Amino acid sequence: MNPLIQLKQTTPIFLVACLLACFGLSPAARAVEPPPDGGYNGGTTAEGANALFRLTEGGFNTAIGWFSLSTVTTGNNNTGVGAGTLALNTGDNNTVTGAGALLVNTTGGFNTADGAFALFGNTTGLWNTANGGAALFSNTTGDFNTANGFEALFSNTTANANTANGIFALFSNTNAAANTAVGSSALEANDSTGNGLASGNTAVGAFALQFNVDSFGNTAVGFNALLSNDSSGNALADANTAVGYLALQGNVDGSSNTAIGRSALILNVFGGNNTAIGDGALFNNDSTGNALGRFNTAVGTSALLSNTDGAFNVAVGGGAGGGITTGNGNVVVGDGAGFSIGAGSNNTYVGELVGPAFSESNTVRIADNLPTTFGASACHIGGIWDQASIDPATTVPVLVDQFGTLAQFVSSRRYKHDIKPMDKASEAILALKPVTFHYNSDKKNTPCFGLIAEDVAAVNPELVVRDKEGKPSTVRYEQINAMLLNEFLKEHKKVEEQQSKIENQQAAIAELKSTVAQQHKGMDVLTAQLKEQAAQIQKVSAQLEVSRPTPQTVLNDQ
């Protein structure tokens, strides 16, 4: 049998009977004169057997009922209506209505009890208010407690500043302080161990925080909110906040969770530090009981609905992150975004219904489902234009494909295969026809220079990018640049070869010139020698001419 129910069924009525019997056997001390039948001096009113039986100097007391205020002597401003009310009271300013209410109160003051056996055991407690049968029944020295409802704060003894409104509200609380329970069985098991640890809890709603034992600092507003919190009695389920019908209903040892909305975090068992705002937000979180579903934030109806063991996820929007189950570190903003992440982790999705129909990880998607028809959508990002805060040594071009995927252009060998010289493949660019043009969308009519995609496709289809309808959309200028480089290098090689030939020819010519010059020099020497020889010959000839004898004339006798 539930110990709470058993306790409720064994209310010590025999104690009441024993106390009343003792009063009946007490010897007469000093009765008011004449015997009680109405009003008396000092603002005193007594009606009933032995009512205000021992009163001497006290004033403004009202006792109506058998043995009501029977032991008060100097007490003032007490009101007891009902058999045995304030029977042992000696204090001041107590107001009691109901049989046995504040029956054993001695010096406690400023207490109000309305209901049979309300504040029954109170002795010296001050400023307590009990409305309902057996409300604050066991309170002895506890102060500033308020109990409204049958057996509300029934077990409270020394705890202070508790408020219970509703049948069985804070029923088992004994020593824990500063709790507030509003609703049937709210915080019913609180502090049932008597450790005094379960303080500072607030429960508003039927069965809110019903089974909390020793955890503190919890707030539950709504039917069954935090119903099972700390039902293990491990005192680990602290600082939870649940606002809404069934919010955090199944939480046992999870701490620092916040659930606002119907059924928010309803199945959470041990997960901690989660925030769920919205109907059904984080509905299945930690439903496995593995204590892995923690540090999640879900804002929106059914946000992170299917998450069980995922952690550090953030979802904002109706149904946002609804497909996340065990993935971690995802950020999803937008209604229905991230519906298929599953076990994927470290994704960031922004936009309504953003996300593919498959699981992925380490991916950023921002409104990637906008219309792709030319001119139908646009993207504007601030903080880029005319900003010079960039590292020139590490800048790389960023490209976008037809799926809206952004990536840098990589060139490392480790990202490529089938590498071979371009050779004649680049000669296709020689057939391209550069043009000048204006963009149709350019209101400024700025002159532009480039190529026409259709013309390029006619030369080499691999040099154009096509749209989803297969029509040429743009030119792969980065490929043309590489082809231009190859053609330039080929022409450069030709130039170098021609230059080498020219240099060789020039060397040969120089050598020939040198030879000719040497020949000219030799000829000059030979000419000089010939001239010298000619002069010598002439000289010899002259000498010979001088030494030649004079020719004789012979006469013929005939």
Describe the 3D structure:
Helix content is 18%, strand content 14%. The chain is an alpha/beta fold and 558 residues long. It has a domain at 257-368. It has a 20-stranded mixed beta sheet, with no helix packed on it. It is rod-shaped, with a radius of gyration of 54 Å.
Summarize the model shown.
This protein is 18% helix and 14% strand. It is α/β, with parallel strands linked by helices and 558 residues long.
Topology, number of strands: 26
Shape: rod-shaped
Distance from N terminus to C terminus (CA atoms, Å) equals 200 Å
Cα-based radius of gyration, to the nearest Å: 54 Å
Structural class: alpha/beta
Measured as a percent range, the helix fraction is 10-25%
Mean pLDDT: 89
Percentage of β-strand residues = 5-15%
Poorly predicted sequence stretches spanning 5 or more consecutive residues: 1-30
Main sheet specs: 20 strands, mixed
> What is the overall number of helices?
4
Encode the helix/strand succession as letters.
HHEEEEEEEEEEEEEEEEEEEEEEEEHEEH
Features:
558 residues, alpha/beta, 20-stranded mixed beta sheet, two-stranded antiparallel ribbon
Topology overview:
Elements: H1 3-9, H2 13-25, E1 38-40, E2 44-47, E3 62-64, E4 79-81, E5 95-97, E6 112-114, E7 129-131, E8 146-148, E9 163-165, E10 180-182, E11 202-204, E12 219-221, E13 241-243, E14 258-260, E15 275-277, E16 297-299, E17 314-316, E18 331-333, E19 348-350, E20 364-366, E21 398-400, E22 406-408, E23 435-437, E24 448-450, H3 453-459, E25 464-466, E26 472-475, H4 477-547
Parallel strand pairs: 2-3, 3-4, 4-5, 5-6, 6-7, 7-8, 8-9, 9-10, 10-11, 11-12, 12-13, 13-14, 14-15, 15-16, 16-17, 17-18, 18-19, 19-20
Antiparallel strand pairs: 1-2, 21-22, 23-24, 25-26
